[in-house]
Structure formats: structure tokens, C-alpha cells
Amino acid sequence: MSAAARGQGQQPPAAGPGTREQQLPVSGGWREGDPVGDRLFADLGPLALEGGGSLPAVRLAYETWGRLSAARDNAVLICHALTADSHVVGGAGPGHPTPGWWSELVGPGLAIDTDRWFVVAPNVLGGCQGSTGPSSTAPDGRPWGSRFPYVTIRDQVAAEAALADVLGVRRWAAVVGGSMGGMRAVEHAVTHPERVERLLAVATTARATADQIAWCAPQLAAVRSDPGWSGGDYHDAAPGQGPHRGLGLARMVAHTTYRSAAELDARFGRSAQPGEQPLGGGGRFAVESYLQHHADKLVRRFDAGSYVVLTEAMNSHDVGRGRGGTQAALSRVTARTRVVAVDTDRLYPVSLSEELADGVPGAELDVVASPYGHDGFLIESEAIAKVAGELFAP
Ligand SMILES: CC(=O)SCCNC(=O)CCNC(=O)[C@H](O)C(C)(C)COP(=O)(O)OP(=O)(O)OC[C@H]1O[C@@H](n2cnc3c(N)ncnc32)[C@H](O)[C@@H]1OP(=O)(O)O
Ligand SMILES: N[C@@H](CCO)C(=O)O
After folding, report:
1. Ranges for the AB hydrolase-1 domain (predicted)?
2. What is the value of pTM for the model shown?
3. What are the structural domains, with CATH classification, of the chain?
4. Which of 75, 250, 329, 368 could join 323 in a cystine, given CB atoms 3.0 to 4.6 angstroms apart?
5. Measured from the CA of 81, which atom of ligand 1 is nearest?
6. Residue 381: CB partners within 8 Å, gap ≥ 6?
């Protein structure tokens, strides 16, 4: 889709982050008692964690589409990205803050055809959409907050493997994911090669690089330096008192890395936000307003504690840890594998997808041309659907 067709020159909202602070929740995300939407819940019991310690009781919220076959051989696991959730398909509505993020890819007659496949999308461990995370209730009846343990991508995959056991899925027909979801998808295929028949890894990596960890550093610092953070124990605070400013700043940094420099320049250039004077007038450039808009939207729907936990989980990601390195780990994968990169992705550059595709036996790499950078994995659904269609062909 062209940039023009995709909303260049749309009328931006007037407000920036924090201007309607009294309306902000303490912590964004789904909370016990909210409408469940299409969520289902699986209670998986205790989980021993890679970094030591354990969670006494893990719950994963998830959604499904299609029907599990009698042979239980048509289940597809879709793993969501950092601030997405299980709502892969469908509109926004009660219990769902955002519309389905891959609605053009998953559904009846689509590339991942729910007339044929039983699609399962869990909310990630550590998140804030009904799975156990820092905003959920600990055994003592209080929010976990700062007591929520450090979890790794491998811990998240262990929880999702336990979900597969509960669903009676011995082997996934496919595991699919983009960005952080791609990290989990690859980790599934490395940890449990016998349980993954196909792998689709989009805009992702086999290991978090120094550059990716570096981009996360100011984001973590922004959240933790917000006075509303209170060491991570803010979930009982009054409405509007959460670490919204810090989370918004983190999103502004992150969102910049999700788009390409060329796209931002082509779209916004040096334009002033309409009605504002950035040159000595205290106003904003349009691109600043755009970032603040994305920050404002995130703080209304996402928990800062989950943002920290999930960011640290991404930083932990390294399929080669304790397995003799990246290439040795990837060589374990037996799944039929397609790797997709976006040519302008500056956060998960093509070279990381090349490393992934080189390491997985028989893997094929597709590079999608897109001006949108990393967010191309959400936007370029037609190109990704083409690859998925080939991988999922009978
Ligand atoms: C993986 C997931 O997280 S899925 C869940 C939803 N995803 C997200 O929230 C992730 C963050 N968002 C994004 O990454 C992107 O919006 C995507 C990938 C979902 C979609 O990308 P695009 O369609 O290119 O949207 P784009 O980045 O142009 O943002 C459009 C918004 O910016 C606003 N905007 C555009 N210019 C300006 C401006 N100068 N000032 C303020 N706001 C502006 C638009 O009004 C529009 O607002 P709306 O989303 O509230 O309707
Ligand atoms: N927009 C995506 C980008 C990170 O993959 C998200 O927030 O999850």
C-alpha cells in the first residue's frame, strides 16, 4: 500500500501524552473483572525459571480460531510481538484494546486458513492481557509488581509448551511469530524440534544484539526514572499516578526504531505540527507530535511493569546460550522454515535474518521491500501472506 493511501496528511489529534492524565488508568492492560472478550484461560501450575526461582502458578490467556482435528495435527501457534496480544484476528471491542494485528493473514480462506488450521494465540507470560505478569495478583492477594521475577524468552516458551500439553497438541503444525514473537517461535523450534513441523519467523533474530539491547536501555531507564514507577510497586496507586510519562518516553524511542528514517522524512520532513511553531515558538514538529500520539495510545492500554519485564526478556534472547552458540543451536531445527525480513528494518536488520536462515537447515529467506522499517511486519501483510501461503500449502 502506498504511503498516500496509508494516511499521509491525516488530521492529527491535538493532545500529547499526559494532557488527559486524570483519565489514565494506573496500569494499562486487561485486569481481572474486565470483559474477557474472546479470551480463554489455561492454569498451568508452577513454572521453574531459567534464571532461578519459580512462579508458583502460571496462567496463560489465549484465543483460538478454527477447530482442532481429531488427530490433533493441525494446530498453529502464533506468537505476538512486544505490545500486541492474543487478538490476532477480529475488531477492537470489549476486552480487546486493539483490532486484530494480522487479520489480513489469518482467517477463513486466508494464508493461514482457519477452515483448515486450528490457530492458537497466547498472551505472553509477563504481559498484561490476562496472562501472569507484574500487574496480576500474587498468591498473597497483592499485585506482583516489583516482586515479579525476571523471565526469559525460554521461560515464555516453556509456558507455551505447557499450554500445548493442556490443549493436547503434541506437535505444532506450525509456529509463527514476528519481532518478539519471532524470538519465541525460533526458540520453540530450537528447544522442541520434534514439536514444530513448520516455522515462520518474521522480522526477528536468533539473538538480541548489542544494538537492540542498547535501544532498550533508554526505554528501561525512562520507565524506571518516572517517580510514578515507585520501584515497580505502583499498581495500587490512584488513577493517573502510574509511570505513564516514562512508558510514553520509552514508546517514543521504540517507535522511532520501528519506522525507517527515510519514511519519517518523506512523510513528515521538517513540517510543523499544524497550528504549532517549533522554531522558537515552543511548538512541535509534526514527527514529534506523531511519536507523542503513539506514546499516548500505548500508556492507555499497556502496563509499564509488563513493558519492563518483556523488554528484559527480549534482551535475554539468545538461542545459542548453553548450546554451543547460535549456529549450533539453529542446526537442531527440523521444521520446514521460512524467514522473512523487511529491507528497511533498522532494528532487526536483514543480516540477522540471514544469520537465522543460514543456521536453520533448509531454511529459505524472503526479503520484503517496504518503506516502513520494522513495522513492515505488521503492515506488509500481502507479502507476508504470500510466504505463509507457500509454507502452509498442502
Ligand atoms: C504488534 C502490535 O503491537 S499490534 C497492536 C497494535 N499495534 C500497535 O499499537 C503498535 C504501534 N503502532 C504501530 O506500530 C503502527 O501504528 C501500526 C504498525 C499498527 C500501523 O502503522 P501505520 O498504519 O503506518 O500507522 P501510523 O504509524 O501511521 O500511525 C497512525 C496514527 O498516527 C496518527 N498521526 C499521524 N500523524 C500524526 C501527527 N502529526 N501527530 C499526531 N498523530 C499523528 C494518526 O492520526 C493515526 O492515529 P490512530 O492510529 O490513533 O488512528
Ligand atoms: N509495534 C510492535 C513493534 C515491536 O515489534 C509492538 O509494539 O509490538
Report:
1. 74-378
2. 0.94
3. 21-392 (3.40.50.1820)
4. 329
5. 1
6. 102, 104, 105
